Amino acid sequence: MRGFIGLAAATLASFFTQSLADPTVAHPGGVDDIIITNDNILNSTTTREFKTESAFKINAAQSGAFPINVLNNFGSGMYVYVTGKDASNVPVLLGTNGQYVYPQADNTGVPKQITANIGFQLNAQGQNTQIVLPQALISARIWFAQGQLKFYTVKDGNGVSAIVEPSAANPADPSAGVQWGFIEFNYDGTTIYANISYVDFVGIPLGMGLTLATGESQIVQGLQAGAVNNICSGVKSQASADGQIWDRLCTVSSSGKALRVLSPNLYTSANAGAFNGYYDNYVNQVWSKYTSQDLTINTQVSAGNVACRVSNNQLSCAGDNRAYPKPTTADIWGCNSGPFAIIASDNDVHRAVVPRLCAAFTRTTLLLAGGNVQPSLGASSYYTMNPTSHYSRIVHQYETNSIGYAFSYDDVNPSGQNAAGVVAGANPTNLKITVGGWS
User: Is the pLDDT reported for residue 239 higher than 70?
Assistant: First the structure.
């Protein structure tokens, strides 16, 4: 979870009480319109890394320059930005001179725009551009934008300069009128882990290919060209079909250009009460079914299959250290609250049940034939029963090979299946990224 330092100008509740258009229309504002949440702050406590700090520091000391090659298949006016943390856990941006930029916030508490040269302009459509990381970087993102993004700095609760990144959820963010997307990665000097994620939103279609020193290559082609327009059309059609507010997930410019599509989790985090009660009837049916029969969770770890049963309005699983109350719709969208919140004292069974149970609710597979064993049904069974996450369904429809996270636990699948948009390995020699469709 990223560090939280509060709101810069207004609370989320008061900001989003205004009536929203269908779809949501971006209206970029100024510094007073910035809202800082755990989704758009990068500070010394941010944990987007996948390796321990100690391992990172050991490898970072030996790290060297690492090239990233970007193929522009999108169009003109494209820029690249890189944010992350250096070996000392300090937030940085990559400057156009090839060195890390350390933002310096003042003591006013007001976000201050970072004016250093941090935006790399991509070469023309169809051409490659190379950027080079001077050394290791974790909790990192490579941002791609058609137009220039605005990054800010402000001191966090510990008095340390943090980076305020563009917010996809805030239609008045200073960068709201720009279309962008990003790839998340960690490079510790010897090993890289990179992923394309649509857990929060869909922006510019991105793909990536990793080459290792062994000659091994890995490719995640990502979203198809034109996917954002198609996904916006898809959520609009779904809104017409079921009367839910799916169309508001699409953010457009004042001229109507589709900029991005928010996940229901990100949208509801900024719009309290949205989709309220959406899964309630389904949850009640699940609780009723598994009061009289077992729900078997295949933990896919040493615990193997564990039997779960509803009793006293809670789902209890064999060998689990605590039971699961009924989830709300917001719990299902986020997979990290209510019954799906994992705490330090939870045992291995609990840590294995949470992602498999939330994935089953998100995909609405618990009442299907064979759904009494989770995970056991393949992707053809996902999102086939209402209510379900139509955002995830539609996003996967426009992914190449349906690869790429559309919710937090999209990597939960029967053994042998993989939906994660990840490339990873030791001793990487090159990371290739395509913007605007893979080629």
Answer: yes
Range of the domain at 95: 12-226+422-435
CA 359 to chain CA centroid, Å, is 15
Q: Residue 120: CB partners within 8 Å, gap ≥ 6? A: 79, 80, 81, 94, 96, 129, 131
Clarify whether residues 431 and 368 are in a common domain: no
- 213-232: b (≥16 Cβ within 10 Å) or e: eeeeeebbbbbebebbebbb
In this predicted structure, what is the pLDDT of residue 426? Answer: 93
Residue 37, CB half-sphere, CA atoms under 13 Å: how many? Answer: 16
Please count the other Cβ atoms lying within 10 Å of the Cβ belonging to residue 323. Answer: 16
- Residue 8 is predicted with a pLDDT of 38
The DSSP call for residue 398 is T
Contact 25, 171 (CB under 8 A): yes
For 384, residues 6+ apart whose C-beta sits below 8 A from its C-beta are 364, 368
| Same structural domain, 109 and 178 | yes
Question: Beta strand 250-252 with 24-25: parallel, antiparallel or unpaired?
Answer: parallel
| pLDDT score, position 420 | 74
- Could you tell me the pTM of the whole model? 0.90
pLDDT of residue 58: 55
Using pLDDT thresholds of 50, 70 and 90, give the confidence band for residue 183: very high
CATH of the domain at 126: 2.60.110.10
Shared domain check, 180 and 64? yes
Same domain, 284 and 222: no
The C-alpha atoms of residue 300 and residue 306 are separated, in whole angstroms, by 10
Whether the per-residue pLDDT at 259 is higher than 60: the answer is: yes
CATH number, domain with residue 322: 3.30.920.50
**Half-sphere CA count of 313, side-chain side, radius 13 A:** 4
In this predicted structure, the answer to whether residue 275 has a pLDDT above a threshold of 70 is yes
| Closest to 355 measured CA to CA, from 326, 334, 328 | 334
184 contacts 410 by C-beta, under 8 angstroms? no
Query: What is the C-alpha separation between 360 and 369, in angstroms, rounded?
Result: 13
Half-sphere CA count of 38, side-chain side, radius 13 A: 10
In a domain, 247, yes or no: no
Among the listed residues 214, 210, 211, 263, the one whose alpha carbon sits nearest the alpha carbon of residue 235? 263
**Nearest-CA neighbor of 34 among 162, 200, 169, 140?**
169
Q: d(Cα 389, Cα 65) in Å, to the nearest integer?
A: 41
CA–CA separation, 341 and 363 (whole Å): 19
